[in-house]
Amino acid sequence: MHSQDGDEEVFEIVDFTTASEWEVFTAAVEEAIQGWGLAGGGRSIPPPPSSSVSASSQWREQKQIINYSDFPFELSYHCPLETGSSEESSNHGRADVLSPGDFGEEESYEDSLPPSLAYIHDCSNCFPNRAHCVARWYGLREFIIAAPASSSCSVAPSKARLLLSALTLAANNTGCEVAMLVQVLKPAERVFMGSVTAPGLRATLDMIHFRCSPPVECQDYEGLVELISDKVGIERLRLEPVSSIRFTYIINEWPEEACWAQTPPDLDLELGDLGDLGYSGLKQLPFGLLYDPVRELHLSAAWPRLPHGSFEDSLLRFTLDPCDAPCWTAKVLPPAGGVEGPEVAGLLGEHLMELLHACRDERSVPELLGSAFSDHGAQGGRDVSSALDRLTEHAVPSLGAVLLGPHRHRAAGNKRGSTVQQGPLSEEVIAAILNFLFPEEYSTDDDNDSAYPTTFARVPHWQPHVQHLPDEHPLKDVCVGLKTAPAEGLVWRLSVVCCHALHSLGGLPAVAHLLYEVLLELRFRWDNCLVVPGVSPAFEEPPPPDLASCLLQQKLQMLNCCIAHRERRERGTAAASVAAAAAGSAAAGSAGTSLLGFDEDEFFDCVSDDDEEKDADSSKESNDGLMSWDEPEGRVRRCGELRLLHSRRRLYVPATQDPAPCTEDKLEQQAELLLRLGDTDEGSAMRARLMSSSLLSDMESFKAANPGCVLADFVRWYSPRDWVPVAPGEDLVGVEVVDGHRLSDRMTIPGNLWQEVWKGSLPVPARRQKRLFDDAREAESALQWLASLGPGALCRHLLPVLLHAACCRTALEPHLYTLPSTAVWGQTSAYQSLEALPPLQHSESLPALLCLLTQRLGRLSRQPCDLNKYRDVIEQLSAVERCLGRAMSLRHKLLPQEARNVEPKQKTLDNKRTSEVDGSSMTEARRPSDEEHRKSKTSSDEISQGTSDVPASRQASSEQTRRPSRAGNASKHSSHGEEKFKVGLEDSDDAMEGVESNLGSQFTVLQGSDDTQDDKDGKDAPKDGKDDSAVLLSLISSLLSSGEVDVEGAAKGVAGQALLRLFERSIEEQERQGSLPRYSMEQRAATAPSARRSLAEQTRSRLGYPGAREYIVRVRAELPSRTSRLMPHRLYATFLKGDFRVAGLFTQDATFS
Amino acid sequence: MQDSECITTLKILIVGESGVGKSSLLLRFTDDTFDPEQSATIGVDFKVKTFTVEGNCTKLAIWDTAGQERFRTLTPSYYRGGQGVIMVYDVTNRHTFSKLDMWLSEVDTYATKPNLVRMLVGNKIDKPGREVSREEGLAFARRHAMLFIEASAKTQDGVQCAFEELVQKILQTPGLWEVDNRSQGGGFSVSREDTAAQQSSCGGYCSLV
């Protein structure tokens, strides 16, 4: 504290220059306390924990770094985040705080307690699930901690006292009644000591922590009471403590049958087996976890309020049976890295991350593979030969060349590979991959499943009835916004293959090799006029680049445009036929005549038939190439009923050149060019000139198609709104008026660009005009662009596509549809930041979360590539993957019957499907609207099948009528699930007609297996099996969603029974293995209470030994002397294996000491 | 102009049927002039203007497009990266109003920023013979969540106001314009580190076992 040094000077100089480090520190702490608004006693009490929300209660932290000398300490303030209105909370606030009546005395001490100590005798939430350990151990609701800022430093106890005195002084100076604590020793030991000062009292908080077994005298409850009685100096009998006790039982070694993990995909195996083109491993993204994602199950049995004498817990006698405890809570722990470490990613997450890392690589293909793989070498030789080829080759590739093309090329490519240099990928692997990427289009092989679908969408083909997934692809709507590539197209496949190449086939060099081979293939296809497959729908004209897709896809589309254009051009010039007017669209010259015919039909009753005949004749003439200069050419169709203003002939829409297809990077360049012209008038004029090339082309085509036309004719077709009606009383001097219309003012301005271009244009049909699109140049530029990509850059382009594929892959998991979105958050959010994702309503389902993720991906895909943001998406997808893994593991553990159905060992795939049926059944239970929807569908099916004579509207009764007939086998299926299942079967039977007809027999398999199981497990299976599975599934989903779950009904409830069974199985297994001595309940009951046994032996129950025991002992006693007021005290103790901790909070009366 | 003081450059598009007065609106805004004989735009044109709204200096690059149908194959490429779009119709011509749906879908298809600000402007309110009432314009704008104003490039009514509103709205829309600046700064990674630090230093939120 700064002391005011004596003399009052005139200028009131206060000198702090001599303040010690300790004083400076104290002042800084005071400032922090003031800053957080904790000074003074009159603050409102933080709201109490209401037990309903306690499990998920969040804590708020405020932090500040304060230096003591040059050593940084972190001062943090903690309080619960529940910011509900404080008035409300004060009403029913301390419902469960021990009242003096609990101690059998009248006097009240509560009023004298500061708010920060108000809850130390609160029994309602004595074992919070997630709280700062200080809150757990001392029962505090708000506190300030000073800890070394770096976690590697430790604070010696003597230093800690110095710090604590500074904190206490600061609290005194500011009137702050919040508990002040100092972290002692190493941070990992989590030892805190502290004090609370308030008017009339002072509390000390102290802790003992041993990394070994506790001393004999405090191994049990009795010992703790002894300890507390020593501390307060009152004999035990007068204490009458009220306690809370909790035992936690742990399964960390799962019995073999309950263990769950996926077998890793074996790419080597698949690739080694080259005979049957079935590299399914390469074609799909992997999904799932290779380890059991549930490491430990914790079951805690708690007695929140045990008056003294109502139980015994000592070495002599132990009467607490966890199966009788009123509260059970359960939680699961993820594996590896501990709770706070990041979890190991699943297969999908791992693969995605690898691609993300590869994106940062800037090396080129030759840098990775050596100069033999440089594109120049390949290109040089190739270009010369193909140039010669082109001279000699027939313009139309022969059918044989087309058919043999890929083979020929692949053979050539292989030869090159073996003679020059061996890449990281073997010939066979490359051949397999290329076959997958560029499948034989003309293959007659029916079982060649590599062929691309004939149409493309943004989501893959969806088979709801086979896989028992929702009727529509859940991502159908959101995937539209993705700037990626069509699902299951070439780019999509390339992304998947690259992902595998990175992960399993040799990393980045493998990708480089792959890129090199793909480039060779593309160049080959351009050279030989072969359309690249999997880029756009088959059997259609290649569309111009789709700007809503990624650049890579656009480039390939561009290449296809060039290939198609070139083929048409070469065919056109070679055959000199009219068939292909070079306009490039379907609206070519020959189409014009046919369309004309159509028009004639339509307008047969037109007035001037003669005129039309003449028109038609002349156009035919022109097609025969006999026309003179003013003969019409390149007509497409009539433009309505319009006639030329002067000749009164019909006005025809000409065949025009399509605008050149363009990829977005080229468009950007063009826009850039226009921008560079500046916004001056000259710039504008220049721009207009640059842009007028297409106007000129259109005008020339128009002139060719409509001999004798004038600008006004052109305007009536091209810009009809510039052909304006004459207003009455208008000055019409020098204006040409036809049918009461005239050209608009802006078109008649002398010297305007439209007129100029019109004057400068000649009648030239589109196919004889200068090309607006140069296919050779564009193709070369697209290929060059691809060749300039390094493998890292390729990965950057593929990343959004791969993530798109990953989202769709995740959507295929049936368990996705059984879980709420909170299941992902529950375990992860506490330790990992998923903040970047906007919060969902808690009621929403996991698919909704996936949709949200996909939407986010959509936004990212349209922005410049930001790898950090993509990393977030990947982490979130990983979280979903892990969550699904956990769900499967828990189902396997807690629903043993069903799980046995899934067991892949001797059962077939069919049975696996039946388990998926269950998955969808739960979806319905949770989503009433969907259920409604399906119900109606179901009932209609039922009627058609005649399986039920009940009308559609009476669904409920129809269920009942059916139930008896299937009694006993429904133990694990909800009724809706059964129906859905049935519908699924019927539909798929209908659809597939025996192709997969064993679906039908599946049903009987399911029934049969269930029957036998019921016989077998007859005594275990509860009567009301349907409800049971619902309870268990909701238990699973809440285990995933929140850290700790209340088990309804404790040991007596359905969930409790299931957990109990799991524990018993685990104990059996351990007994079998000899890691646990055999022991039966009968034995225990028979043991005489007087027989002295160890406490460990005493505490053995049906759940095994408790892995942790926690005791809270609350007493009231006069402190520091017999004349003081009755003050509350609290002692907390945990007994873990090799870890023992006692934390005590003792208050002293400062008024009557 | 003083580029350095501008907080950002915004790209704004003007679209609509031919002859509704897109170029005139632009000219009125940038040069405060009106030319009844404004020639028909060919392809696209643009103007740049530095504009200050509520003390925020912004540089506007306004792209003016041709309304003719044939040009519509050329112009969409210039929609890329636009933060705001002004859709103009002629209040004295119902046809231009009824084509708005088509223009909307055009914008939705080609605009790359999903949350770009859309403004509906009914032009030529100085002209007699109105065919589209203010209420109809309002209703359309409301249905499609757009800004709405009626204006006249000739009498300059509402023109300045329209651009002002649009720019303000763009500046208020999060994520619409900061992206450019942020992509250089890498602000995102900073927040990641923060959360990491939080995790490590606390260590107190533990479970029992």
Offer a few descriptive terms.
heterodimer; A: 1153 residues; alpha+beta; 13-stranded mixed sheet; two-stranded antiparallel ribbon; 40 helices; 18 strands; elongated; disordered N terminus; B: 209 residues; alpha/beta; Rossmann fold; six-stranded mixed sheet; 7 helices; 7 strands; disordered C terminus; Small_GTP-bd (chain B); small monomeric GTPase (chain B)
Description:
The complex is a heterodimer of chains A (1153) and B (209). Chain A is built from 40 helices and 18 strands. With 1153 residues, chain A is of the alpha+beta class. In chain A, the strands form 3 sheets. Chain A has a 13-stranded mixed β-sheet. In chain A, helix 9 runs antiparallel to helix 27, helix 9 (347-358) runs antiparallel to helix 30 (867-894) and helix 19 (589-602) packs antiparallel against helix 20 (609-623). In chain B, a hairpin with a 2-residue loop joins strand 2 and strand 3. Chain B has 209 residues and is of the alpha/beta class. Chain B is built from 7 helices and 7 strands; from the N terminus they run E-H-E-E-E-H-H-E-H-E-H-H-H-E. A 6-stranded mixed β-sheet of chain B has the order 2-3-1-4-5-6, sandwiched between helices. Classes of the chains: A alpha+beta (1153), B alpha/beta (209). Chains A and B meet through strand 1, strand 3, helix 4, helix 21 and helix 22 of A and strand 2, helix 7 and strand 7 of B. Chain B: This is small monomeric GTPase. Chain B: It is an enzyme of class 3 (hydrolase). Chain B: Its EC number is 3.6.5.2.
